[in-house]
Amino acid sequence: MTWHVLTVTTFLPLVGALLLFAGPARFARWIALVTTVATLAISIPIYTTFDKSSAALQLVESADWIPAWNIGYGMAVDGISLPFIFLATLLSVLCIGVSWTAIRTREREFYAALLVAETAMIGLFAATNLFLFFVFWELMVVPMFLLIGVWGGPRRVYSAVKFLLFTLTGSVLMLVGVISLHTMCGTLDFRELANATLEPEAQGWLFAAFLAAFAVKVPMFPVHTWLPDAHTEAPTAGSVILAGVLLKMGAYGFLRVSIPVLPLGVEVFVTPMLVTSAVAIVYGAYMTLIQTDVKRLIAFSSVGHMGFVTLGIFTLTQNGVEGAILQMLNHGIVSAALFLCVGMIYERTHTREIKDYGGVSRIAPIYCVFLTLFCLAAAGFPGLNSFISEFLVLSGAFETSGWLGGAAIWGIALGATYMIWLYYRVVMGPPNPGLEGKSLELNAREVATLLPLAALALVLGVYPEFVLSYLHAPVELLLAGLAP
Amino acid sequence: MSGPTLADLTYVVPELILVGAALVLILLARRIQRSRVAAVVTVFAGLAAIATSGWLLLPEGNESAFGGLIALDGYSRFFKVLVSASLVLAALLAVRDEERPVRRGEYNALLLLASTGMMFAATSTDLLTFYLALELTTLCAYILVGITVDRATSNEAAIKYFLLGSFASALLLFGISLTYGVTGETDYSAVAASLSANDGATDPLQVAAIGLILAGLGFKIAAVPFHSWAPDAYEGASAPVAAFLAAGSKAAGLAALGRICMAAFASQAEVLTTILAGMAGLSIVAGSVIALAQTDMKRLLAYSSIAHVGYALLGLADGSAKGASATMTYAFFYVFMTLGVFGVIIVLGERGKRLDGYEGLAAQRPGVAAVMLLFLLSLTGIPLTAGFWAKFVVIESAVRAGHLPLAVLAVICTVVSAFVYMRVAVFMYMKEPRESASPHLSLPVCAALAVAALVTLIGGIFPDILATWVVSP
């Protein structure tokens, strides 16, 4: 590969963000759309040239960055990062689609923030240097802060500041971890770090430092409280990015940093991690049940669903970890789609209260087809994507401990309950009088926005090997590093 | 010790340029009170000083002049360039300041003389030269703070600053005399040799001397617990003067501190580390937390600058050459981002001095708001801005020196200060404008903002550019 496909894919959105300010504001959404579609198109060679059978990093790019400190610029992909680059590039296109008519104020700034966020997301999943990883990690915070705070709902400033303070607190502690790793190993390259031997005690507290950042982003119980506020108040595109990609950054961090670099730290923390994951699944599900705001309900469901991810990762079994990664992808698809659905109808009704809806199926049948599909997918219905990943995580959990499996099943049962109940209250029954006279049906642009995610939910539900085939080799390698 | 020769003068060309320009301005002062000649002369003198300190005329390697009173190593050059750069930017910011002093000639001459003092403070290798240089700087600074004679706050600030500053100078002088009493020397290397000769045994008198000198310098750089003058002085002074104090004066203080620690008292590492780490920790905590309560932008920045000095001291507290380089990096980037923020304050005029004056700025002046956001992110320490790399290197020093709790404290306070800075961003981006946008946007201020923004951005993306310049003494 003579041209640096990963670097180009990563920084193209940033170039687009700068271009936005060259043209008039009314072209902003077009420039943003062209940029995101071009990014998606340019990233195609990443998938076509990728060798699934190899666990090694591929499409490796490296350059000197800060030679005085032995910090390099390094990018590459393996089977674990590949699906997330796809998810980030795809969701960015859809975010432009859903914001097309919803965002009419300060458009240039809005799309610039989205594009900067896209660069940060792609870069994070492609980075092979911890310093670069940290740079993208922090870079993500700024556009999200602005997206929530400027274009969000009524309590946007509170939510934006809460999001900022939570994530910064986590990431500055990670910074101490990054710096300590640098002083101990003299390098921040992931592969060299994985080969370094660190003292068990140091690994323990380093794990804790990184945990602070990753746990806030995932978010794990009990540091999840920023999530419902941020997701609820963010504009639809912001919620999609938050739920779709940002939450995966934390889990990805466990897979990329904690497990390969700090295996002894993992050993110390594995039980508390499993327990808090199980708590998150059950507690998250109960919290979801009592929500009366559609967006807040979907936001809270993320706590439980991401609990499955951390549960799967820390079972440290092939099935569990593969299931967790698939669950990350599936949650990215399904919760992003649900936020898109909510956003589309909110644009017409300007209410998020569940009690203001009802009988939507009579008014907007096409909308309800999509909503049905995504609600069932979120509930873990067989034949749709989440079923497979939750099943894999469950099998990993039962391999580890029956109690964990029991808790997870309990969470799945509750998950089906709240999704179906939400569906019942919004879609079934006689139409809510408040909705009369409003045209809620989707237009072609919105159908086009939802279609890719619907297709993915179906395809991954029927043929999960499509993604799993990428995961076998790298996950095997990941777990081999942990062998006692 | 041989007497000074004509050749020695080539070592102080930048200082001579500044002094020359200052003298010309004082001579012409009555004629140029209302024109911009003074500012132009200052800017060009500063640029010439940058050029001559940076790469012209000066011999390579570590050399000393005037019989060992001043040193001309990489460290000196680095700080000479930095001080001249902050002089140029501060002069540019002052060109169109609405509360500009009528006495433009004297105003610019004082800026030039203060910068000369700062340069000598960074280069001197003798306790007495160092004291004289520092006094030259602070005497000019007292007058600069009070130069807006028709404003009571300005006078009050100048008197407060003067009283506390003279007290600090007394402490410093007392420390110097104690050091002379213990070692019989004032030359840094001779002091160092004398101190390391009585190996192991720490003379309590010497500990007191070091404590007094550090306290005196702590005053100059406004480190806690010697910080109380800064908020009043910044608030009372006109914005360009406050910018110059916050940027240049702190950088020069750190430079002098770094050289004394590295060259004179290196053998007393334990004492130095204890005091410096303590000052650093206190400054970071107090600066970040008290800034939370401020509604006046200049006061807010005063507390923020106190916190930043704390971060910068983390590098020196390490006691190694690498730590000193970290402090140099921090000082360099700090100067530009601080001048940048003050530049935005000046652009906005009266409105820029209040926190709520920033409401809705992004809707009215997106460009100014974006530049301000960049500086605020840099002050917070978000990656891809210079402030992040500055924090990275000083926290690395703290971690490497084994001060892990201090490092954690420092990063936690980063979150506190993030709240402080991002509150301004919230006002700019997330509130509706209530006041009309100010018309001030003159070319000199734009130039200063552009330079500060470029350094902040380029320094953040390619931090390596400084690597060959930050050499400890």
Mind explaining what this structure looks like?
The complex is a heterodimer of chains A (484) and B (473). With 484 residues, chain A is mainly α. Chain A is built from 21 helices and 2 strands. In chain A, strands 1-2 form a two-stranded antiparallel ribbon. The longest helix of chain A is centred in the C-terminal third of the chain and has 32 residues, at 318-349. Chain A is globular. Chain B is an all-alpha fold. Chain B has one domain (6-466). Chain B contains 18 helices and 2 strands. Chain B has a two-stranded antiparallel sheet with strand order 1-2. In chain B, strand 1 and strand 2 (70-72) form a beta hairpin. In chain B, helix 3 (74-94) packs antiparallel against helix 18. The radius of gyration of chain B is 21 Å and the shape is globular. The model of chain B has no long low-confidence stretch (mean pLDDT 88). The A-B interface holds A 65-69, 106, 109, 134-135, 138-139, 141-142, 145-146, 149-150, 156-157, 160-161, 164-165, 168-169, 172-173, 175-176, 179-180, 182-183 and B 362-363, 366, 377, 382-384, 388, 391-392, 395-396, 399-400, 404, 407-408, 411-412, 414-415, 418-419, 422, 425-426, 429-430, 462-464, 467-468.
Number of discrete helical segments of chain A: 21
- Total E-strand runs of chain B: 2
- The average pLDDT score of chain A comes to 91
Stretches of chain B where pLDDT is under 50 for at least 5 consecutive residues are: none
Keywords:
heterodimer; A: 484 residues; B: 473 residues; mainly alpha; two-stranded antiparallel sheet; 72% helix; 1% strand
Helices and strands in order, then pairings?
The complex is a heterodimer of chains A (484) and B (473).
Chain A: H1 5-20, H2 28-42, H3 44-48, E1 58-66, E2 71-77, H4 82-99, H5 107-126, H6 130-139, H7 141-151, H8 156-185, H9 190-195, H10 200-217, H11 226-233, H12 236-261, H13 263-289, H14 294-315, H15 318-349, H16 360-363, H17 365-378, H18 385-400, H19 402-427, H20 444-462, H21 465-480
Antiparallel strand pairs in A: 1-2
Helix pairs in contact in A: 1-2, 1-5, 2-4, 2-5, 4-5, 4-12, 4-15, 4-20, 5-6, 5-7, 5-12, 6-8, 7-8, 8-10, 8-11, 10-12, 10-13, 11-12, 11-14, 12-14, 12-15, 13-14, 13-19, 14-15, 14-18, 14-19, 15-17, 15-18, 15-20, 15-21, 17-19, 17-20, 18-19, 18-20
Chain B: H1 13-28, H2 37-54, E1 63-65, E2 70-72, H3 74-94, H4 104-123, H5 127-146, H6 152-183, H7 188-197, H8 204-221, H9 229-236, H10 239-264, H11 269-291, H12 297-318, H13 321-348, H14 361-364, H15 366-380, H16 386-400, H17 404-430, H18 443-461
Antiparallel strand pairs in B: 1-2
